[in-house]
Amino acid sequence: MTINQIINKFKENNPNEDTSLIELAFEFAQKAHNNQLRKSGEQYIQHCLHTAFVLAQMKTDLNTIIAGLLHDVPEDTKYTLEEIAKNFGEEVAMLVEGVTKLSKIKYRGIERYRESLRKMFLAMAHDLRVILIKFADRLHNLRTLDSLPPEKQIRIAKETMEIYAPVAGLLGIWRLKWQMEDICFKYLQPEEYKNLEYKYEVEKKIENNQYIQQIKNILGDGLKKEKMDFQITSRFKHLFSIYRKMQQKNYQFDEIYDVFALRVVVPTIADCYKVLGIIHSLWTPKANRFKDYIAVPKPNGYRSLQTTVFGIDGKTTEFQIRTKEMDEEAKYGIASHWNYKTKNNNKEKRKEQPRWIREILKIQHETEDTHDFIKQIKFDIFCDRIFVFSPKGDAFDLPEGATPIDFAYAVHSDIGNKATGVRINDKIAPLSQVLKNGDLVEIIIEKKRKTPSRDWLRFVKTGKARNRIKQTLKGTLLNNLKKYIPGM
Ligand code: MN
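Above: the input record for the complex with manganese (II) ion. Below: its predicted structure, written as tokens.
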């Protein structure tokens, strides 16, 4: 990796900006890390360059890239933060300091887990760019994990799965989340990884490529007939998400039908709905698989239309339809619509940020005192949404007041129907207990159980849980008879 690759990447989005500071930062970092080597034997500066490159890919601003180049200087060299501030300004120094502080977050088992998340949220609230640098740094560390001793590999992989990946998911930075998860999966479950990777490659190469081409041709013809401007791409799901699905639903690999998805990118929102209509006229849509995340975006800002149809020979085929802007956002989430130029305070732009990020920013601007800020922000910042975590580290967002039953149905209807108890932060709790932000929730299920309890309707908060409970109860005719005809 060379500094020119970073400058070129940055120039793609900022053709007119002066990049001489990036070069100066590179020279400074090179001088500071001098002859240091990474455990892999590479020059240390390569780590700084790779970190900065990931940031340039995420289209961050100039100062973030400079801070990315310098992020290990105060920790690992004789040069100080003051010198960074003197040469590159207070803002860069503040970013580097934030990253240095965050590096003290370490995964040390479940009791430290919430504390680490809290620190992460606080750093994020202070300046989101700190987290982006930390993510880029972590990604390169993961890519070079091979050169570390096995215990360290495991610790870093676990920490990434428990903290970094879920937070990247919350922020909608899917690309990083997937990349991180797949690397960690390889280290944490090498057997399963190898096994799945093999099947996946076979499936990908032989089974699907031809099929995808056929679908692309048919849809392409349909769209051309309507004189639409479009781009169809395909992508294979990442390994860990397939693995997780197999675990959750107890599926075999061949039963996972959505190993790939087709993506249609069009100029306008109206075009998205038009494409949806064309797809549904070509193939029959699968019930309950259509999702309109354009009308109702996910809390992290994700927007797309999603549908699954019975394609050629009835093969289930998933489509994502979105505009170019949504496509960028889906890759880099918050990073792509973060308002880097806060000084111009473009209100329109700021409105597009998820509400909870706006809230954090508001508090950040209103409170001068760090102590007050921390007190105020806590976790209740997400006042009408909460984020809770499964034992595997998956994040789920739920409305405020949600209970373990809501969580269970958010994971899967079957988990909901079979729930008999819950451990919240490792302690047994009632199923009606109101969940708090950052709770670690583990549902205890009884395999034989098939029906939910009618009592749950008294306290569930989400429409999904309520509907599923009602549906399941209704479906069990005997249950109804017992209830309405006493003595039966
Ligand atoms: Mn680093």
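Notes for the reader.
The first strand starts at residue 231 and ends at 236.
The pocket of manganese (II) ion is lined by residues 47, 71-72, 137 (CB under 6 Å).
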